[in-house]
Amino acid sequence: MRPAADIFEKQGARAFGTRLRRLFEVLNQGVSSAYAAAGVDFEPRWFGLFTLVGEQSEIDIGTAAKVLGQSHVAVVQVANALQSRGLIRRVPSKTDRRSRALQITAKGRALAAKLGPLWDQVAGATEALLAEAAPHFLQELDALDAALVRRAFAERIQCQPRSRA
After folding, report:
1. What single-letter DSSP state applies at residue 59?
2. Which of 24, 61, 67, 158 has the most Cβ atoms closer than 10 angstroms to its Cβ?
3. Which residues contact 155 (CB under 8 A, 6 or more apart)?
């Protein structure tokens, strides 16, 4: 819940990342509550890798990290959590026998089938929220992603003049 006098709103662009983090946390909490209400042991942070592995016959961690735009370490952490719950497994890679790839398990497929209707509800709630508050947000998010691919944010920061305080 946002405080009446929002310090971050007053900060404008200075608090952009902080406000995105807060939005992320509010959305994640809602999804976590939906999982709990459905009696499902699943975390929102697992969604990306879990669905990616489910769509592939197998995928290695490095490729998954690139596809998801996440760090190798973050993907390994999620893979370990999913594997410990029996939702995915590590198998010898078909393309490089020295490495291991990720595959979804039968238990993982069953959970994905159970989660499908819940994910549809999440999508519906998201679409309704966007229609109400920010109808072009996804297109603008795509534009932000593309701009950051063209030029990293760290570089953008370095190119800004320093103000004298």
Report:
1. B
2. 61
3. none
Alpha carbons 113 and 40: distance in angstroms, whole number: 12
Structure tokens at 86: 């029996």
Two tokens, residue 97 = 């026998």
Round to whole Å and give the CA distance between 143 and 66: 19
| Cα(15)–Cα(150) distance, integer angstroms | 22
At 16 the pLDDT is 96
Residue numbers of the chain with a pLDDT score lower than 50? none
Please return the burial class of 111, using the count of CB atoms within 10 Å of its CB with bins 0-12, 13-18 and 19+.
Answer: buried
What is the pLDDT at residue 4?
Answer: 55
Q: Which residue has the tokens 């390994």?
A: 76
Q: Which amino acid is at 49?
A: L
Q: Cα torsion at 138, 139, 145, 146 (round to 10°)?
A: 160
